[in-house]
Amino acid sequence: MSTGTEETRTAAEAEAIAALPSVARRQARLPEWAPWAILAGSAVVVGGGALMFGRGIGLAVAATAVVFALLTYLASRIVEGARKATDRLATILVTTAFLLAMAPLVSVIATVLANGIARFDAQFFTYSMRGVVGEGGGAYHAILGTLVITAIAAVMSIPVGLLTAVYLVEYGKGKLARAITFFVDVMTGIPSIVAGLFAFALFALFFGPGVRMGFMGSVALSVLMIPVVVRSTEEMLKIVPNELREAAYALGVPKWRTILKIVIPTSIAGIASGITLAVARVIGETAPLLIAVGITTGVNLNPFDSRMATLPVFSYYSYVAPGVPREPFLDRAWTAALVLIIIVMVLNLLARVIARLFAPKGSR
Amino acid sequence: MSKSIDVENLDIYYGSFLAVHDVTMTIRAQSVTALIGPSGCGKSTFLRSINRMHEVIPGARVEGRLSLDGTDLYGPGVDPGGVRRQVGMVFQRPNPFPTMSIYENVVAGMRLNNKKAKKAVLDELVEKSLRGANLWKEVKDRLDKPGSGLSGGQQQRLCIARAIAVQPDVLLMDEPCSALDPISTLAIEDLINELKTEYTIVIVTHNMQQAARVSDYTGFFNIEGTGKPGKLVEMDETRTIFSRPTQKATEDYVSGRFG
Fold it and tell me: I need a labelling partner for A131 at 20 to 30 A (CA). Which of A41, A148, A225, B225 fits?
């Protein structure tokens, strides 16, 4: 291209650019601070008004949101036109929905923190409830019980779930695979109490009625955990590109080695975080453990012998059957709930770290 | 190293569906054979039947004879894995293993088949294969970096290095350049020219200029209509196919009047 034509083009472009601002200027905009000003205004006038007439904070916030949305829409419609006004309205709706969804979550965490922090001390983590009738005591036995029962459940569920998913994705064809998929879906939806009753009925057959043991709780939790592991692992295996399997086959690698050395390593990050989330899902189950494991006041580390304490059941019992005075029991119930939330949070963080560690490198 | 392939009256089925009908051809050693033809005419299916890769799809089977230097590849007791180690394959889209480094990708054929070798032997194999794939100079300082971090053209050459590291006799290429830019395509084409001294190469391509540039022999596949099986219309030296083919369909296709 010669320099001449380039110059001509640049001149034409310059002309076009010169013409642009006049178009842009016609697009009047609300100033940056306008929405905030409207929000503050409606909060003071409407929300303040509602508060003053003693209608409660909920109504004040809701009324503020509605008035803010309407005013912003109107102001934007007048100044910026219909298109921009609709955009602003949609933004406000989406943000409100988000805040609405966050409200219960924040509320739960705040309440549990506020009530549970009182007994969140060293004694709570080092003492059991043996011989404790009032103040003091802790959930050492319950924390250990939860960890033991959940660990056994995980050890039973992960291999079964993983291999089922491998079967479904890599080998399963026809009726059997469809049947398994169907029942996994059904199992994902069964209420946890049913899992507890199942384990109880199963063990009653062998050990007679009234049997309680930690292992029974693990079996109940496995029933809940296996479908979750199958589902998440299946999804992860499915997204491994078929081209990678073909590449391995083309090198003369047998199918089982391809699965072991290519497919699973490629998706291990997703599988590991799926498993961690499945553990987090069952660690807070109360109903099945209530039936299968019961509760005790002392430390019991043998999952095959008699009752064991677990955090969810500990919290539940402290609440429904407190001693006299009530307050120490309620405080311990809240702290147990707080510890459970922290364990689940740590597991979620762990899932992220695992995903980061195992993720295939490169192309980023 | 390089071996010739004899195909006699080969029919390829997917279940009861006849995909390719009655192919007879000889693919010569130390030459490049291009397979051209419209989409869906069965050239890729035929290519994949040479290393039994089409068997990955359940129900796929062949009738007829396909032999490598006289050995029937579909004979009783022949292990498909063994066939695939003799007949390597490069795919349409570069597919290095994302969990592996460049080094590990090249030795994947050894490692995944559980062959033990000393570090020095592996090092030598990696260098030889990467040099063979014209990639050594570009990656020799970052062999421990992930293979998926390379550019598309480099990844495809890495896949070629991975395929030749198992020391096959034949190299199959299924549209190896269709996902690459012209410069990477040129690099691969140059590479094919160098590789043919050591390997028998069969390449499927939609690009007729490419077939004309790289191949010594060309086979033209065609299909009469949907649901009908694909057929080998004619096969000859590339020069002949592109200048004076014997069949009208071939002439129409290579001159762009059809397909």
Answer: A148
Q: Which residues of A touch B98 (CB under 8 A)?
A: 244, 266, 360-363
User: Looking at this predicted complex, what is its ipTM?
Assistant: 0.88
Over chain A, what HEC string results? Answer: CCHHHHHHHHHHHHHHHHHHHHHHHHCCCCCCCHHHHHHHHHHHHHHHHHHHCCCCHHHHHHHHHHHHHHHHHHHHHHHHCHHHHHHHHHHHHHHHHHHHHHHHHHHHHHHHHHHHHHHCCHHHHHCCCCCCCCCCCCCHHHHHHHHHHHHHHHHHHHHHHHHHHHHHHHHCCHHHHHHHHHHHHHHHHCCHHHHHHHHHHHHHHHHCCCCCCHHHHHHHHHHHHHHHHHHHHHHHHHCCCHHHHHHHHHCCCCHHHHHHHHHHHHHHHHHHHHHHHHHHHHHCCCHHHHHHCCCCCCCCCCCCCCCCCCHHHHHHHHHHCCCCCCHHHHHHHHHHHHHHHHHHHHHHHHHHHHHHHHCCCCCC
Residue A251 sits at the chain B interface (C-beta within 8 Å): yes
Q: Which pTM does this prediction carry?
A: 0.79
Question: A13: exposed, middle or buried (C-beta count within 10 Å: 0-12, 13-18, 19+)?
Answer: exposed
The encoded tokens of residue B213 equal 């540039």
How many residues comprise chain B? 259
Distances (CA, A) of A101 to A61, A105, A110, A338, A352: 15, 7, 15, 21, 23
Q: How far is B9 from chain A (nearest CA, A)?
A: 24
pLDDT tens digit sequence for A180-230: 999 999 998 889 999 999 999 998 898 888 888 889 999 999 999 999 999
Cβ(A362)–Cβ(B148) below 8 Å: yes
Contact A241, A326 (CB under 8 A): no
Provide the 3-class DSSP secondary structure of residue B209.
Answer: helix
> Which residues 19-78 in chain B show a CB within 8 A of chain A?
51, 53, 56, 58
